[in-house]
Amino acid sequence: MCSDDSLYTGITTNIIRRFEQHTVQQGAKYFRGRQPKRLVYMESEHSRSSASQREIAIKKLTRLQKLQLIASGSNQLEGKYLTL
Predict the structure, then answer these.
(1) Can you give the three-state secondary structure of 9-63, one letter per residue?
(2) What's the pTM value of the predicted model, to 2 decimals?
(3) pLDDT by 10s per residue, the chain, length 84
(4) Strand partners of residue 39
(5) Which of 7, 13, 57, 68 has the maximal Cβ count within 10 Å?
């Protein structure tokens, strides 16, 4: 979740490193003008290829569908938020 309450979707092999990069404006242009607030959804056990395909699928979801995904049993954060 971002400072403007938007939902950002991305892939990485190191979630903490990537979150910190976004926090200091390194990486995705999406974070120019907004800040990441917390990690609200995570999946793992993907190959690079399947992670990219899953990222595309999630980006096509509506905001409501993304919020439902966050609340679903497939969220590996299990109701915990990562905030750095």
Answers:
(1) CCCCCCHHHHHHHHHCCCCCHHHCCCCECCECCCCCCCCHHHHHHHHHHHHCCCH
(2) 0.79
(3) 888 999 989 988 888 888 888 888 887 888 888 888 888 888 888 888 999 999 999 999 999 999 999 998 778 776 555 544
(4) 82
(5) 7
